[in-house]
Amino acid sequence: MKRRIITTKDGSTTIHLEEWNEQYHSTHGAIQEAEHVFIKTGLQYLQNTFNPAQIHILEIGFGTGLNAFMTYLEAQKQQLTINYHGVEAYPVASAEITQLNYITELKAENNAATFNKMHTCEWETETLITTNFKLTKRQQFFDQINDQRKFNLIYFDAFGARVQPELWTVEIFQKMYNALQNNSVLVTYAAKGSVRRAMQEVGFKVERLPGPPGKREMLRATKNN
Q1: CB atoms within 10 A of CB 4
Q2: Given a cut of 80, is residue 225 above it in pLDDT?
Q3: 14 in a domain, yes or no?
């Protein structure tokens, strides 16, 4: 599938898949989307609501590593202890990673080595990125996830249901529910009614919330039992 680097409306880059007319991030702003959906509505909400001593994150779609890197930056700012698992069936090539401008757009030049380490560390191996941030990159299909009560936050950042409807089913969200501890949260940029109903069917309490730039709504699901 033909891929190219494009610049989104906030100046940050993403990868465009021409055959699907789909991107790894919102064309309205890759960094703005990650900040709104995953950092503010996910990580900060979890911290403010449940205040876990350690935060165990599962990312569905590690992709360009933007969400992981922004989570790392937030962890340093707030002195959070995070164990991060990023699942990706088709890892992004290093040649594409070097073309992304996240370090400069986030004004994170002092953390350039960390961004590089996230992409060069071994897959299937827990890597100590810093004393308070562990990263495990897992190359697997999402339907192969069988974690049980391990995480308290899921970033559900799969490609959209328009191009990969099989990733937004009751079966997949049952796996997400099973992977979460009690008092845990899942956030996604998606807001389709079918997605919300699939989440509710497996036991999530689901909220419709204001979406990132260019998107009216997003979803946050909570597991309380």
Answers
A1: 10
A2: no
A3: no
Token code pair at residue 179: 């992977």
Q: In what order do the strands lie in the sheet with 126-130?
A: 126-130, 133-138, 82-87, 55-60, 151-156, 180-188, 217-223, 205-210
3-class DSSP assignment, residue 178: helix
Question: What is the reported pTM?
Answer: 0.97
Range of the structural domain that residue 130 is part of: 29-223
59 in a structural domain? yes
Question: Domain for residue 209, yes or no?
Answer: yes
Is 164 part of a structural domain of the chain?
yes
- Residue 160: burial class (beta carbons within 10 Å; 0-12, 13-18, 19+): middle
Q: How many domains does the chain have?
A: 1
CATH number for the domain that contains residue 180:
3.40.50.150
- CA dist 26 and 203 (Å) reads 29
Q: How far apart are the first and last CA of the chain?
A: 42
pLDDT tens column, 93-103: 999 999 999 99
